[in-house]
């Protein structure tokens, strides 16, 4: 059932992003799409790489941290290691940066261009263990769709 949800969401993302090559516009609509269709979230959006810092990009949700140091917190760790971070309980993540005290679980997926991390997709939930392996695979596929739309990768 969840696989079908992500297949449908990915088709919607492909249609939404078709012909769009502006990073901010694509990320804004992508965030809105996920926020509209995914349940049990309190924040979804992007942090964009600016040298050794991640800077807040388009998002849906409450006010957020504006800058995250490279390698710090869940987002910075995902960026620095170029690997998805799926955290069942953010309060147990060493160095977690609490932008919203209501967040209890998080998934962060790197966005790449020419083999380099240029941003991360960050999704938070007020529920513990909100994201599983199927969510991770689905969101990684969605991010590849975003990369392909923007960069032709």
UniProtKB/TrEMBL annotation:
Coiled coil region boundaries: none
A GO CC annotation given for this chain: cytosol
GAF domain residues: 42-150
Name of the featured protein: GAF domain-containing protein
Chain segments annotated as transmembrane: none
PANTHER family: FREE METHIONINE-R-SULFOXIDE REDUCTASE (PTHR21021:SF15), GAF/PUTATIVE CYTOSKELETAL PROTEIN (PTHR21021)
GO MF terms held by the record: L-methionine-(R)-S-oxide reductase activity
Pfam families: GAF_2
Database matches in SUPFAM superfamilies: GAF domain-like
InterPro entries cross-referenced by the UniProt entry: FRMsr_CS, GAF, GAF-like_dom_sf, Phosphatase_reg/MetRdx
Family in the record: Belongs to the free Met sulfoxide reductase family.
Matches recorded under PROSITE patterns: UPF0067
């Amino acid at each position: 059932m969840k696989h079908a949800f992500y297949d449908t969401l990915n088709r919607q993302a492909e249609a939404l992003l078709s012909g769009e090559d502006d990073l901010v516009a694509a990320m804004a609509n992508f965030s809105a799409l996920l926020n509209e269709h995914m349940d049990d979230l309190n924040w979804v959006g992007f942090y964009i790489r600016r040298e050794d810092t991640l800077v807040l990009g388009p998002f849906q949700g409450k006010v957020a941290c504006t800058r995250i140091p490279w390698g710090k917190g869940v987002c910075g760790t995902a960026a620095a290691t170029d690997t998805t971070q799926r955290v069942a309980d953010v309060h147990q993540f060493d160095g977690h940066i609490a932008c919203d005290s209501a967040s209890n679980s998080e998934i962060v997926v790197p966005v790449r261009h020419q083999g380099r991390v240029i941003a991360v997709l960050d999704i938070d939930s007020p529920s513990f263990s909100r994201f599983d392996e199927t969510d991770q695979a689905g969101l990684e596929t969605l991010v590849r769709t975003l990369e392909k739309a923007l960069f032709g990768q």
